[in-house]
Design a protein that fits this description.
Glycolipid-bd_prot_put, DNA-binding response regulator, mainly beta, DNA-binding, 172 residues, 5-stranded mixed sheet, DNA binding, 12 strands, single chain
Length: 172
């Protein structure tokens, strides 16, 4: 992740490669997420090893379009995105909203991209700060899943219990 302004205006850029297996199906994905200085997603580019790609942009919060500018009104109101295979996208609303315990629970509409179908959908999610600057609770709107997500000093999710854990790189 970098925090320098690019030629296209992105201030925060995250680039990652994900390799995994979910539901018995393997996947390989490369993604790039460009955000402005307030952690609003402006561009999303996802490419898979099997040749599929999804390139979206948001020129105005809660309004999405294809990379070529075709409006996607089915995602109106989705400020944040959620990619199935990475806890980084949980960082986006946590950083953007700067939640504290006093904030209570925030209900969000997410533009969710599952890696099996690769068809974006709208997904309701709730976020609650449990411990200021240290721990947030994610809950699916239908209450089918809940996870407590610890964050580091930069507000990045470092552990997603049973799914992901950031490894420490120790240098000697």
């Amino acid at each position: 992740m970098s925090q320098t302004e690019t030629a296209d205006g992105a201030v925060i850029r995250a680039v990652s490669v994900l390799i995994g297996n979910r539901g018995g199906a393997s996947y390989g994905v490369r993604y790039r997420i460009d955000c402005d200085e307030t952690w609003l997603v402006r561009k999303l580019m996802v490419d898979t090893t099997d040749g599929r790609s999804l390139h979206l942009r948001s020129d105005h919060p809660g309004q999405w379009a294809t990379a070529r500018g075709a409006a996607l009104p089915e995602f109106d109101g989705c400020i944040d995105i959620d990619l199935a295979g990475t806890p980084f996208t949980n960082t986006l609303p946590i950083r953007r909203l700067n939640l504290t315990r006093a904030s209570g629970t925030v209900k969000l509409k997410m533009l969710y991209v599952p890696f099996d179908s690769f068809e974006p959908t709208v997904d309701g999610q709730h976020y609650t700060c449990i411990e200021d600057g240290k721990l947030h609770r994610y809950q699916a709107e239908d209450r089918s899943f809940t996870a407590d997500l610890p964050v580091d000093e930069d507000g990045l999710v470092i552990d997603y219990p049973t799914l992901f854990q950031r490894l420490s790189l120790e240098t000697n």
